[in-house]
Amino acid sequence: MGTMLSAFSYLPVTTSPPQINLHLAHQLRQDQSSGNCELSALTATRSCRGDMTSSPSDDSVTRLMGFFRTLGILKSPPSFADRQDFFSDVIRSLLSVDLVKPGHIICTLTVNPTVVNPYNTLHGGVVASVAEAMTLACAKTVAGDKEFFLGEISTSYLSAARIDDKVEVEASILRQGRRVIVTQVHFRIKKTQKLLYTSRTTVYIMPVASL
């Protein structure tokens, strides 16, 4: 039990960045401090249109910027969040451990306002990050002190968890080899056992430096 619980205290939690036009993202970041985000987005969109024969209308750019505002993309993070492992700490704070066995972990996730999207449901990136944390912790129960890393994750979003929901998160190993561990992570409403999300992950037992 002690070995498993220690996994939550140091394993990093990361998610892959969204597939956003890199030039547009650069322009948005560059102009956030100057308050010229809308003009920047218009310029970046038109310069990155590729084979498009006409520029997007001002109305379409305005709608795009409104969508970005809804997502909070144009806001700078608060100063207290600008530190290493802040996001990992947020993810770990959501979980309480219910069961730990070799190759099998169950935790309870409590949805709070910090981790919901504009629709007041659990943010999809948080789901993936919790699945990653559970996967790495589950791998730790069987891999011991060997080095390993998450190589692949696939998540299906079947329903949604809302603020104050208690979600049972269960991670289990499907297959374990000398170099590979395949796990599954299920998210269910604790009271009804309704399946919300499911992830399938692959962990490679080797140092990242050996890639």
TrEMBL record:
Keywords: Hydrolase. Residues 119-193 form the Thioesterase domain. This is Thioesterase domain-containing protein. It comes from Rhynchospora tenuis. SUPFAM superfamilies: Thioesterase/thiol ester dehydrase-isomerase. Belongs to the thioesterase PaaI family. GO terms for molecular function: fatty acyl-CoA hydrolase activity. Signal peptide: none annotated. The lineage of its organism: Eukaryota, Viridiplantae, Streptophyta, Embryophyta, Tracheophyta. It comes from the Eukaryota.
